[in-house]
Amino acid sequence: MRLVRVELRRLWMRRVTWGGLLLALVVAGLAVVTQVGAAQPPSAQEIAQAEQFYADQVEWWQENGAQETASCREAQAAEPGADYGCDRLDPGSSSSCRRARPSCRTRPPAPRRPAG
User: Alpha helices, DSSP H only, in 40-111?
Assistant: First the structure.
């Protein structure tokens, strides 16, 4: 036991050990500073762009949603036991909403048009 303790103390006293420890701390510190600096909330322009994209997708869905849902159901019927999530394709459905978008959770569901 004494030999192990002596060898560990000798290793601890070497410059290489201290240099490696210091290098590891510097690398970890740089990684943290880099990530903290990169984490920023979206700008007003990015939010407006995302809202416009969402509005475009809702408009597209209103035009093509019935066809997409029918196509999904056909593909799902061709593969027994498959769940393609055809009921969750609507961009206004609660399962497709993002948690970061509170207005999506509080908005009443869009009226569904009959398929066909």
Answer: 44-78, 102-106
